[in-house]
Structure formats: C-alpha cells, structure tokens
Amino acid sequence: MSDLTIGQGTEVTMHFALLFEDGEVVDSNFETEPATFTVGDGRLLPGFESTLYGLKAGDEKEITIPPERGFGHRNDNNIQTMRRHQFEDSIELAEGLVVSFKDAAGAELPGVIMSFDDDEVTVDFNHPLSGKTIIFHVEIISVKPTVTH
User: Fold this and answer.
1) What CATH number is attached to the domain comprising 141?
2) Which of 50, 54, 74, 102 could cross-link 131 (Cys pair, CB 3.0–4.6 Å)?
3) Same domain, 113 and 88
4) What is the pLDDT of residues 6-61, one digit of tens each?
5) What is the mean pLDDT of the chain?
6) Is the pLDDT of residue 1 over 70?
C-alpha cells in the first residue's frame, strides 16, 4: 500500500456512505463498485472533499458534515408558487414528486412538489439534503498521483 495521502494532484478510489444523524442511509456504494474521482474535479462538494485530505489507502473514517459545508441551509426563497396551468396535463401531481424545470440559462433544475390544488402548485427548489447534517463514512481503497498528459 502506498503512503500517498489525499490532496491536490491525487486520484482517489473509495467506498462511501452518506447517512443522516439517526443512521438512515441516504446513499452508499459499499455494496457495489467503489467510486473514483480526482481531487478538485468537482464531483464532490468542497466541504466533503476537504475532509478527506491527509487520508491514505486503508483508512476508514466517519466525518460529520454540517449543512454549511454540505448541501447548504434551507432557503425559503427557493420555495415558489406556480400556476397549475404551467404544468402539462399529462403530469400527475403528487406531494413529494420531483419535477424537472429549466432555469433561465436552460440548465435542468429539479423541484419537489410540496402542495397543489386546481389553481396553484407549490414547489421546493432547495436541495433535498439542505439543512441536514450528514455523516460521511469513507473507506479509502487507493490514492494515486493524478496522471497528466
């Protein structure tokens, strides 16, 4: 095993799990193939990535990620009320349904239906994990120097 530690210029392969504080698993790849990413490539939120610095292959750790370092705090301004006619009739609305919208730049923006009636639909555009403290459980499989071409 290498003694190379995670930092800028490294490629990391790891198993991970995201859990709520009560132990409920949000996401995990411990039962599947490990994930590989290059530090700084944007695949991990900076608040998660920075907690891995200094770890090496073979290390296993549980890290508590508060909302401000993870998915942010909930923002009431991200809850919007829209007219019902703005939704296609083919969409069967239900509370908790995730609907994809386009933002002003044309990028995809998911929203969760909070409530609706014949006239209005209330949509929450906050990230579903915003406002939550997340337990980030990692097992580092390998750390390699980044290959540059």
Assistant:
1) 3.10.50.40
2) 74
3) yes
4) 999 899 999 999 999 999 999 999 999 999 999 999 888 899 999 999 999 999 99
5) 93
6) no
Residue 23: predicted pLDDT? 94
Domain count, the chain: 2
In contact, 60 and 139? CB cutoff 8 Å: yes
Residue 141 falls inside a structural domain: yes
Element (H, E) at 47: helix 46-49
Give percent helix, percent strand, percent coil of the chain, each to the nearest 5.
10, 40, 45
20 contacts: CB under 8 Å, gap ≥ 6: 26, 132, 133, 134, 135
Predicted structure pTM score: 0.78
Name every residue whose Cβ is closer than 8 Å to that of residue 64 and which is 6 or more positions away in sequence. 133, 134, 135, 136
